Amino acid sequence: MVRAFVKLTVAVVSMTVSVSHASAQWGVTALGVGEWDTNETLVLLAGLSAGPGGSGLSPLVGAQASWVRFETGDADVSVRTIRPYGGARYGFGSGSAYGTLGYAFQSRSEDIEGPIGVIGSAGDTDDGAVVSGGVEYWGTGGPLGAQALASYNLGGESLWTRGRVTTRVSSLSSGGQVRLGGEVAYLTGDGYSIVQPGGVVAWHRSTNGLILSAGAGVKIPDEGDNATYVKAEVVLPFH
What we know:
The chain is mostly beta strands. The chain has one helix at residues 2-20; strands at residues 27-37, 42-51, 56-72, 75-91, 95-108, 128-137, 144-153, 158-172, 176-189, 192-205, 211-221, 227-238. A twelve-stranded antiparallel β-barrel has the order 1-2-3-4-5-6-7-8-9-10-11-12. The relative contact order is 0.14. Residues 8-13 and 15-24 have low confidence and may be disordered.
């Protein structure tokens, strides 16, 4: 699984390098997410995406890997997933939108049949084709920003969505800003649904596009116990 992700990473970077000869605007963006909740569920996710960026329509390729550990009965279960994908991005000045199609390859430490709702925050609950899309709005100088993301796994028949709104609360003399806001995620699939509201604080560094954010909130399933979660995210563009 690790070797496969390394190969996918090398492939994405190699593609970016080769295309960059034709367009100097191509770049790679790295993503990392860690989330833990009081039901002892741990989610780790990493990804790379590559594309020209800028205004107008452009290609987008990437790969995402996740590792999830949770308890079920007397067993600790770990689930590993790799999802390569390709699609397109459209930049429109005050924001961007994207759509991709990929395939999730999943392995589990225990022989558990069917999709697993508890790992929905990682996006993929089973093997299968995955359709994803999103819109990012950063405005034209105003304090408000917004994000809407969605991902549907056809194999697990599971949907993950998240909406986030933040506002600038401080501009830093070093050339960055601190943002504060809220978000709500909704997860649903075969036999489960979860609402996940929370708050988020983020630091944006304007010199290289680095974004560090932390959040906390509650997971509210339609069945079972609620859980408090904490998480951290990092987004780092390479140009």
